[in-house]
Every structure is written in C-alpha cells, then in structure tokens.
Amino acid sequence: xxxxxxxxxxxxxxxxxxxxxxxxxxxxxxxxxxxxxxxxxxxxxxxxxxxxxxxxxxxxxxxxxxxxxxxxxxxxxxxxxxxxxxxxxxxxxxxxxxxxxxxxxxxxxxxxxxxxxxxxxxxxxxxxxxxxxxxxxxxxxxxxxxxxxxxxxxxxxxxxxxxxxxxxxxxxxxxxxxxxxxxxxxxxxxxxxxxxxxxxxxxxxxxxxxxxxxxxxxxxxxxxxxxxxxxxxxxxxxxxxxxxxxxxxxxxxxxxxxxxxxxxxxxxxxxxxxxxxxxxxxxxxxxxxxxxxxxxxxxxxxxxxxxxxxxxxxxxxxxxxxxxxxxxxxxxxxxxxxxxxxxxxxxxxxxxxxxxxxxxxxxxxxxxxxxxxxxxxxxxxxxxxxxxxxxxxxxx
Length: 396
Description:
By secondary structure, this protein is mainly beta. The protein has helices at about 5-10, 40, 120-125; strands spanning about 15, 25, 50, 55-60, 65-70, 75-80, 85-90, 95-100, 110-115, 125-135, 140-150, 155-165, 175-180, 190-195, 210-215, 235-240, 245-250, 255-260, 265-270, 305-310, 315-320, 335, 340-350, 350-360, 365-370, 375-380, 390-395. The protein has a five-stranded antiparallel β-sheet with strand order 3-4-27-26-25, with no helix packed on it. A four-stranded antiparallel β-sheet has the order 5-6-7-8, with no helix packed on it. The protein has a four-stranded antiparallel β-sheet with strand order 9-10-11-12. Strand 23 (about 340-350) and strand 24 form a beta hairpin.
C-alpha cells in the first residue's frame, strides 16, 4: 500500500482537473477524466469466480512486465514497467500514456520498481519512485521523484531528481528491493535496500545494503534515527535484511515488511527502530547449496519474523487492507506470491500476526493494492504470465 488509506480517502472525493493534479472537480460518483463514470468502471458484474474462492476477478488491463502501481485521487493509476516506462492509466484501463522513461538497468531483477504519491500530492503533484541503475563499481537501487504535470490532454513527469542511492554499488543483478512507504504523518519516507545477494553487507553498519532506511521527503537521513550514534550510516532504521519487497503501515502506525528468505524462510516482519533482523546469521531457511543457517531462536540477539513460510511463497508486494468491500479482512495484510503464484492473507492483531488464506492465482503476483473503492487489485508480473491488472471484488 503506497499511501495510508486514511491519507487517500479525503482526496479521493475529488478529481484532478485535466490541467494538473489539483483537486478541482467532483469524482468518483461523476465523470472521471477518462470519461468513465463510477458505474462504468465497476465491472464486478462481469467478474469471473474461481470455485472455492471468495472473490470475483475482473481483468482491467495488461502490461509488459509491470512491477508496481498506485492510485491517483481521481481513480486513475500510475503503473511502472520493468524496462523503465511509467504509465498513466485510465480508471477503466482502456487508455494509457507513457509519462516517463527512466534510465534503468533492467538486467535480472533490476528495472523501474516502486511508485507512490507524495502525501501532499494534490498540492505538489510529486511522485516518488525507485529503480536500479549502473554506477561506478557496479549497480545500485535509486530513490527519485518528479512532478506529474498535465496540459492539453498530455501528461508527463517533470523535474526528475535523484534523492538517495544505496552504497556501495556492487556487481550483480539481484536483490535491489526498492519499496517505499511514507509514515502516516507524512514526515518520513521509509525505503528498502536489498543486500544484493552479497550476504554480509546486511550486517555492515557503514553499508546501506540489507537495510530499512528512514529518510526525510527530500531523501536526507531523518534526524533521530536510532543507530547513527552507534556509528551506523545515519539513514539506517533497521538492518539484517535480505530482499525486502513489501513495506506498509497499518492503521495503528505499525510498520510491516516482508522479504524473501533463501531456500525457505520467507518472512513477514514488524519493523522496530534499531533492531537487527539477523540475515545472514539467522534465518528459518537454508542456503541454496544446502548449508544450514541457524534458525531464529530466543536470546540470539536478532528480531524474529512474526510469520514465516517454508515452503516459500516468494513474497512480492504488500498491502494492509483498510476498506469496507471486504469487512472481514479489514486490518489484515495481503502479500503477492511470485513462485507460489498466489495471493496470501495474514491476519494482523495489533503487533501479532497469524497465517490466514493462500489463494491460487495461476500467475506470479508482483503487486497488491487497495483501490479507492475498497476493491483489491493485483498485478501479474509478466514473467510467466500476461502481466494483467486484475480487480478482486466479493463473489456474488
């Protein structure tokens, strides 16, 4: 989930005008900028239902290896594609335009990755995003932002600037991570940097690999980060992580993160300031070559996962549901499963987590989002599927 839903809902009652992101016209119950009304974009009556599953599926659009998405206040969407394109897509999925093509290094797990709106998007038009890029010494994950500007029916992302990048740059094409979440008050930006399949940097206090970072909206280390006084890079909030592909706040302000383990041991973590989450010294999985890794255990000095999976689910995007369309799941976490080709639900109760449902989706699920209407949207990543955007609504 990109913005806390409480931040989206007030502005979701207003639509952006055709000349920019300022909320000037009523939507979603009236016409949206793509000419579709709320009734026309509600395609639940045409949804297909898989036996035994509690939701119907409606295909909205298809993309070329999509990675992430987020909703604008007027129900349109921004969608990123692996090869560097950022798309502005109409609410009904029928219209799209490329608003930016970023200079990404898309080899392996690299590409254009997460995209979120600034908390003050209706005023500023700012869009935050991440991507992998070549650099001296190798490659690295980059945090950047720009402004969405629209005029005469054409939109583009302008004023693009790099805010932060992981250090050091290293060789290889994996474990960039690059997920973004703003704190509920909008004062801080949390960002994930993977350990790039290098293991030990996750425990290195000077490297920002294998870490959760807490930054200002301008990409600077946030004042008061708990490890700076201990000689860590001042941006580090938590460490000992592997490949962090989901990050979201719940309604109580708890920060949840999910990451891929090695051979076994995928994790859902409650992120606490200054904590060490153990990688590569502790994991409930094993190395791919069969070597054992000590499991998390009481007293080992490492923060254990709240939930873990073996066999793995290969977790993609993370969303915490706060809508009314599925009231039975309000407050629960939803995780996209890549190799497991599934949608996974985890029940959250305060700071406790327990496994819920795991639904077969028939495709790798890279991203999970909540729409302004309370529907659940999932993105297939296109690796072994069509790269479709699918809207989930209650089965009738």
